[in-house]
Amino acid sequence: xxSVEDVLKALSEVxxxxxxxxxxxxxxxxxxxxxxxxxTFTLNLTTPACPLRTRLEEGAREAVAKLPGVxxxxxxxxxxxxxxxxxxxxxxxKGVKNIIAVASGKxxxxxxxxxxxxxxxxxxxxxxxxxxxxxxxxxxxxxxxGVKSEVEFxxxxxxxxxxxxxxxxxxxxxxxxETPLIWRGPLVAGAVKQLLTQVNWGELDYLVVDLPPSTxxxxxxxxxxxxxxxxxxxxxxxxxxxxxxxxxxxxFRRLNVPILGIVENMSFFICPKCGERTxxxxxxxxxxxxxxxxxxFLGEIPLDVAIREQSDLGTPVIVAKPDSPxxxxxxxxxxxxxxxxxxxxxxxxxx
Length: 351
Ligand SMILES: Nc1ncnc2c1ncn2[C@@H]1O[C@H](COP(=O)(O)OP(=O)(O)O)[C@@H](O)[C@H]1O
Ligand SMILES: [Mg+2]
Ligand SMILES: [Zn+2]
Known about the structure:
binds adenosine-5'-diphosphate, globular, binds zinc ion, alpha/beta
């Protein structure tokens, strides 16, 4: 019969390919007991939205099962999300582990659609998630998530409404109907920071921020005043969009915001009748730009009627049609983002 040490040794030969370290030194293994050939332990992942979950679970199980004398492996999977930043000095953000910004160089590329489906997919995986709609020019996250913009206060703090498990706060809570046409960058940053720090976020594994579009002042000052854990750049396949996405990426890089990767929205059209894929624009642009700029490519999202309709109805496709191919695309993307966040957090821990 193996000893606890034998089990740990076997598990120390299983590596997490993303973090390039073994499960034991990553402190992912806990509570090992061996009794009558039954080995019990916990596999503690760095995020419940781990893209390699099945692979790690199988790897760990097999490594232990093949030890001589093992009759049964009882493995329990849990997770403890790694933090990219330390917000402990902030009264309202101290329970937040990761702020993930979703950005684009220009509007209309589907930044909010991506942000909303990302937040819900992370939440559905078991993480605690919030979304901050910082797009002062068109704060449509509450609409997309079916949230009314009446805000509740407690001790001068906003109690964020919860939709599909996600805590929601929006610049749209502050003005109804008319949107101020001109927002200068510093003003935007000030207003967003105020909102961010007036919300009772509680404990969050991920706070997704839908940033104002542009490569100018607004996201710049914001990124400087709120330390971001990382940023996802949303683009569409057209050449002009790709160029501006590259510009946005360069800007965040200059600000030392870790780039989590590029996602291409409206990549191809799925015929609602027969499901056939048509690449309306040239293909592979997002992937090519990601490679050129030495960042990760996080996936292609189809141009799809259901995606738009569900956003308009206030029930994003990921909740309205959880078993659809569209939902699967968003889920895979979200898991990639979570994996990237773990990698960034881990590289900071090593320093
Ligand atoms: N993949 C998609 N397929 C179909 N419609 C989409 C898709 N992504 C976004 N849209 C629609 O395009 C419009 C702009 O998207 P939105 O997410 O608001 O963009 P942004 O936040 O970048 O301005 C919305 O009507 C939205 O429903
Ligand atoms: Mg938007
Ligand atoms: Zn068709």
